[in-house]
Specification:
Blueprint (H helix, E strand, L loop, with lengths): L11 H4 L11 H11 L27 E4 L10 H16 L4 E3 L7 H10 L4 E5 L4 H10 L4 E5 L16 E6 L1 H15 L4 E6 L4 H21 L4 E3 L16 H12 L4 E5 L3 H12 L4 E6 L2 H4 L7 E7 L1 H13 L8 E3 L6 E3 L13 H14 L11
Parallel strand pairs: 1-2, 1-3, 3-4, 4-5, 5-11, 6-7, 6-8, 8-9, 9-10
Antiparallel strand pairs: 10-12
Helix pairs in contact: 3-11, 6-7, 6-12, 8-9
């Protein structure tokens, strides 16, 4: 593949208005907790619909699983939707009808949780890092209800322990899969510039951006090249301020496209839709990378733009947890998804299969093996 040499360092001020992520108090303590948890839990196992460990109607008496969404809603074609699909699949197999409530803002979290408590839910699943505080308070106030927290260990007092024994964290070290995506993006790029931006500067967002940046850097080290990453330097980056496909997301994507990137990674639920709009309006050959789900499958409207997607198996993890609880076998041991246990991974190249280097997949397989055996290190808040 021919490549052009691009000179000049990343100019933060010229790039976009960059926002410094807020220092999330207790991240170090939370990281300590995650290290302690890293060996806990087993990988979720995908099961055919209707056979997730129970026959229809096979749930324990009175079992009622419920779910609260984060911003973006259950049709975000991303992490909320994945959680919802896992809940629906397990509930169908168990013969129960779940209750779900959607959050439109942070002020909805506590009332939505109380609403589910009042409806006699026996299991409540919270989707996303942002719900951790409300989930912790609700779980402590309702010790007889089983809770599952997606994307946060719920250590709100930062003592290195999950706040209540009735909370099961489902966590995903997506930096590992994002490392592979960054390497692939650098391989594909003809402009020697790739970009990323996020919704909010949460660790569960920046973990994608960190891995992506490290993957590009690894490409540069291995190939002696200088592909730039715009939008995230490891500390400061481009964020839209939310998880909505809106003008802020369009502005963020446009700023990166205007600087000449030809691969774009938006991290934040449906904000990829704004990126897709900007890419189409540009008239240029710019590849999109999805997150959470294989967006090629969940949103065919952008399929032709997708180089790949960085997957985390939220749906399978939720299905597994709900199925176990429905059989009276709730296990609060946390699950941490990695490349080794297939809790995270890189989606196929799909329509881009013929556009990437024929050597790329083999190189990615070798890198994945190196990450799994520890010979290649990927830094993230989940691996400290």
């Amino acid at each position: 593949m021919s490549r052009r040499e691009v000179r000049g360092a990343f100019n933060v001020e010229a790039a976009l208005t960059l926002s410094t992520p807020k220092k999330l108090v207790g991240i170090s303590a939370a990281a300590g907790l995650l290290v302690a948890l890293a060996g806990c839990g087993t990988a979720p196992e995908a099961t055919p619909s209707g056979s997730a460990g129970a026959e229809p109607g096979g749930a324990v008496d009175g079992f009622l699983p419920c779910m609260v969404s984060d911003f973006g809603g259950f049709d975000d074609k991303s992490f909320n939707q994945l959680g919802f699909e896992g809940l629906q699949k397990a509930s169908e197999a168990l013969g129960v009808e779940p209750i779900t409530v959607q959050s439109d803002s942070e002020t909805d979290f506590a009332p939505n949780l109380q609403n589910l408590v009042d409806q006699n839910c026996t299991m409540i699943i919270t989707v996303g890092f942002a719900l951790a505080s409300a989930a912790g308070e609700s779980a402590k106030a309702n010790p007889d209800i089983e809770y599952v927290s997606i994307d946060d260990p719920v250590d709100n007092d930062f003592d290195g322990k999950t706040d209540a024994p009735n909370i099961k964290p489902l966590l995903f070290d997506t930096s590992q899969a994002a490392f592979l995506a960054g390497y692939a993006a650098a391989s594909y790029s003809e402009a020697d510039k790739v970009g990323t931006f996020g919704g909010q500067p949460y660790p569960t967002v920046t973990v994608f951006m960190d891995g992506f940046r490290q993957g590009v850097e690894y490409w540069n080290e291995q190939k002696g090249e200088n592909v730039e990453v715009l939008g995230w330097d490891g500390k400061d980056g481009v964020f839209t301020g939310g998880f909505t496909a809106n003008q802020d997301a369009i502005n963020a994507a446009q700023g990166l496209v205007d600087q000449g990137v030809d691969v774009l990674l938006p991290v934040g639920g449906p904000i990829y839709q704004s990126a897709a709009s900007v890419i189409r309006d540009s008239g240029r050959d710019i590849a999109l990378i999805g997150v959470d789900a294989d967006v090629y499958e969940t949103d065919p409207s952008v399929a032709e733009l997708l180089l790949t997607s960085i997957r985390k198996l939220i749906d399978v993890g939720v299905e597994d947890a709900v199925t176990a609880a429905g059989k009276g076998e709730f296990d609060a041991a946390p699950f941490i998804g990695t490349l080794e246990n297939d809790g995270v991974g890189l989606a196929p190249f799909h329509d881009f299969e013929s556009k990437v280097s024929p050597d790329l997949q083999g190189e990615l397989d070798t890198i994945k093996a190196g990450i799994v055996d520890g010979s290649i290190t990927v830094d993230s808040y989940l691996a400290q």
